[in-house]
Batch of 2 targets.
Target 1
Amino acid sequence: MKLPVFTLCALASTSLLTFADVTVSTLFSDHMVIQRDIAAPVWGQASPGEEVSVRLGGGIATKATTDAKGNWSLKIPAQKANASGQELEIRGKNTVAFKDVLVGDVWVCSGQSNMEWTLGGCNAPDDIKAADFPWLRRIKFNHVSLLKPSMQVPSGGWEACTPQTAGNFTAVGFYFAKRIQKEIGVPIGLLDDNWGGCRIEPWIPTAGFEMEPSLAPMLADLKKRDEASASLPDNAPGDGGQPSTMYNGMLHCVVPFGIKGALWYQGESNGGEGDEYAAKMRALVGGWRKIWNQGDFPFYYVQLANFEKITEDPAGGDGWARHRMAQLQSLSIPNTGMAVIIDVGEGPDIHPKNKFDVGERLAAWALHDTFGKKDVVPSGPLFKEMKIDGNKAEISFNHLGGGLMVGKKEGREPTKADASGKLQRFAIAGEDKKWVWADAVITGDTVVVSSPEVPKPVAVRYAFSMHPAGCNLYNKAGLPASPFRTDNW
């Protein structure tokens, strides 16, 4: 059938209008949170050469012109925190508007299943019922691994925290945000961007591998893969275990977005590693910071919990013991903090349900280091140095938190001082490198370690095993000491 001339014209006009429509990254939606106090990036597409303007609320419009491919990006002026919903308007030849947009702090919540673990899986019905927090928002990312970096956002948009939605929030992120919001009083957005069972390598961008000489073989393989996949479609799927594939599919699309910092809970899938995991952490943090180009933003992470069967060998070193040392070593990366959770594990369950203490301990780091609340103790005792005095080893610590104590922790209840308790899980060795369980006593701000079987001690280990049940050194702020070792045997 031959169409009338006016119908053909109408179809042509519709086609042109569709081509001309300004669009914005699907990271932007109703109920979103924009990072405060920075010039916040906004980006999208329109016709080549088209002028695009973006305005938040009653602010001044910021303008940009698209490039030859129709891409545009700009930064809206820095905004103060604002808990009143505003409209974000993007205007070109058409107008796109998002409602109920808040301004506050945005945190990336990444890692594997213990970060993805939802509030609904934590046996915390009362917390869900009370979760009417309109200032707390999140955007959940679907699992996508790609061979090439993609700007397509695998998500259905932002949602506010209510008793109806809270059960699906990352539990660690929820408890972290709840504590921060209580102390700081600004809206918080969570980028719920994680994948159960993942290793660390898929989250590291190429730029991160380039920073770490010890990972050169992995970088070489990555570059060979990139060359081999150059002719493949941009959305070519990658193996989720390969380097950079999760970064490509789930994080690259976020990188221009303004953030306050990152939370990281991962390591179980790399649990057999030691120093090599520390190198990968340096690559991860350094790579993210380089690509984000927002300076050394805060990066707070979780040391692995006690897990599996209790082990009684004083030498330890089994399972995740060396991995935890690599996580402790990663504190040398600037502007990082580590939540120690060696007291919240549940034996055979790799997913501790107590995510409350995990979020609280991450929040303590942020409150102290990021927000300057120096009255908040950020950490339990962290090994500082060892001095040998005759047949005794004297251990000193950072983060004394009002003093050292023998503590007892039960569930989510605050840690209590155990006045009649004795320190457990300290081992000592002499030059023969034979480890025995030690007597350990708190003396002032130190722990004095000894054994009649070791007259000339040279090294001490604490909680250095997969499941060091009974380890009970805390500071008076109620935070546990990290496992440590003074040797490198």
Target 2
Amino acid sequence: MNVDNAKVSVIVPVYNVESYLKQCIDSLEKQTYTNIEVILVDDGSTDKSGEICDRYSKKYSNIKVYHKKNGGLVSAWQYGLNKSMANNICFVDPDDYVEKNYILSLKNAMDKYKTDVVFAPTYNYHAGKITVLGRLKSGLYKGEKYNNLIQYNLFNDGHFQDRLITPNRWGKLIKKSLILENLKYVDLGMTYGEDVSIIIPIVLSIKAFYVLPYKENGYMYRIRNGSMIQAYDKNRWNSVKLVYKNLYKALKDKHATDTMYKQLYIDYAIALILSYKNYIKSPTATVNGSYNLLLEMQNTCLYKNIKSVKNIKNTGYINNLILFNLKHKNYIVNKILFDFLRLGFKFKSK
């Protein structure tokens, strides 16, 4: 099979996003880099998303549409990856959009600096307001500069839930071979942290990457009410167990340093905190259920490694109290936390 090394495959996993999908696809069709194929994977949408995809595929020859039974986000983007005809992969989520020079800037940087991964500028887009999302400075990360970055900032740099090296599929141009090589660390059952499971192993597989400066080449990440990351996820805890089991294996396979493992343990502690809070969002959550979750967390294979994790920087009093109670499992403290968080989530939902 002949593969065009200049071509970029843009993979868009689509599920029930009829309100935002047109803006996403329009932004891809307006790209100044024209050697692209847009792969829309309709993952069993029940709204008009599938129809919108079909209309665009009839209008533009470079748009391909595939309709499949709902299998989740991971299955959708992997399906698109298998259909790709290019060596260069770019993921765009269907409720987001990109600026006109997005792909041109990514591809030019990949060719100029001979890197297999290029990071784009990323922005949060919420209620009409745009704010910078990424904090990593632009430039080439190679040699000692690259090694120092991943040595101490592979997972985080002390900012709670705000990684310096953004672990998202989107906002990057990646060589297809790198993704295929590291797919073994991604599980179809993941509904949380699935991007971390592919991007962290990829970063550990390379020797350099480039970060674009902020111009007309950004990725706009839309924050919307009811999105998967904001809502209660009944599969969150199962996902966390899968994600961190695979991340631990990836670090072992790629001969990570002790410093990198320590970062993993801190990140795991954060994931436990978020899983606990996620459970309390459930309409059927109980005090006993939250306490039993703490006990289950203590029985995971990675738990013993977070005992040395003290208060996490910039996380706030409540999150550190959850971490404290995870280690000491006091039922009274747990009830106080449960009642406080339950009340807070109810207030936010109004």
